[in-house]
Amino acid sequence: MAPRKMVGKVEYKENLAGNIWLVRICFDEEVGYIPGQYASIKVSEDGMRRSYSVASLPGGKSIDLLVDVSPMGVGSKFILSLKIGDAVEVLGFLGKFTVDSMLLLDAKQLLFVATGTGIAPFKPMIEDLLYKKHFMGEVRLIWGMRFEDDLYWLKELDNINRDFDNFKIDVVLSKPGPDWPGFKGHVGVVIDRLQQNWENNLNYLCGSPEMINETDKKLKEKGVPETKIFYEKFF
Ligand SMILES: Cc1cc2nc3c(=O)[nH]c(=O)nc-3n(C[C@H](O)[C@H](O)[C@H](O)COP(=O)(O)OP(=O)(O)OC[C@H]3O[C@@H](n4cnc5c(N)ncnc54)[C@H](O)[C@@H]3O)c2cc1C
């Protein structure tokens, strides 16, 4: 479907943790997009725009955006200023960071690697794969964050875990407190431990450009061809 300009209204807004906000924008009619796509939001009167991945499943009249406002630029300030009922101009939906159904036919394992709000497109992509497409192979999510206090959506991810034996999640903290029981460091720490058949997997990377460059290099060193690595850099 060709991207088009739409005007929605803020229906819900929640501070999930620290600088992370969830904003739900509701439209008059059902909106169509593929999990993994993003929306371009008008964030200033003079027409500046910022991109935000859609963090919810399609099929309804609303979209969720998951926004880290720590850069504190024009986009962050716009998101912080939004109140329930405010109008938002959305150009959507854009991008090719989606799971190709044809490639899924041969895939045995899917690896999703995120840092920070890079998890935004992954939640609907993973929910779509498991709940709707009934993908039977292994789906693994590695999520890199800094501190325990940065974490959110753990209950939602746990629910997916409960529903599907073939879904696994590893959270890696680069600056954990002394009691953190999980992985410490960067996402590469977990990737190096994976017992994957790197020939039959598909790899999706989303978040900071640094993480994506490092992970891309690591995967290629493991023999993963470029055609099986897909990424969305948040910059
Ligand atoms: C396809 C795409 C999808 C995206 N999806 C999301 C999403 O779902 N959630 C989300 O939070 N962001 C997402 N982003 C990033 C988002 O579009 C903005 O770039 C980001 O929110 C900063 O906008 P800003 O106007 O507040 O800051 P800007 O005015 O653009 O930048 C202010 C300062 O912060 C630095 N900066 C910019 N972005 C970041 C960052 N991500 N981390 C640290 N420093 C930064 C800049 O270099 C600059 O110095 C996405 C980007 C792309 C390209």
The share of residues in extended strands comes to 25-35%
Adjacency order of strands in the biggest sheet: 4-3-6-1-2-5
Q: Which geometry do the CA atoms define?
A: globular
The count of β-strands is 12
Instruction: Briefly note the CATH topology name of the largest domain.
Output: Rossmann fold
Q: Structural class of the helices, strands and pairings?
A: alpha/beta
| Unique bound compounds | flavin-adenine dinucleotide
Write down the overall mean pLDDT: 95
The biggest sheet, with number of strands, parallel, antiparallel or mixed sense and barrel status, is: 6 strands, antiparallel
**Helix count, DSSP H or I runs of 4 or more residues:** 6
Report on this model:
- With 235 residues, this protein is of the alpha/beta class.
- The protein folds into 2 domains: 4-94, Beta Barrel (Elongation Factor Tu (Ef-tu), domain 3); 101-233, Rossmann fold, CATH 3.40.50.80.
- It has 6 helices and 12 strands.
- The strands form 2 sheets. Strands 4-3-6-1-2-5 form a 6-stranded antiparallel β-sheet, with helices on one face. Strands 10-9-8-7-11-12 form a 6-stranded parallel β-sheet, with helices on both faces.
- The longest helix is centred in the middle third of the chain and has 14 residues, at 119-132.
- The two termini are 25 Å apart.
- The model has no long low-confidence stretch (mean pLDDT 95).
- It binds flavin-adenine dinucleotide.
- The site of flavin-adenine dinucleotide has 20 residues, from β4, β5 and α1.
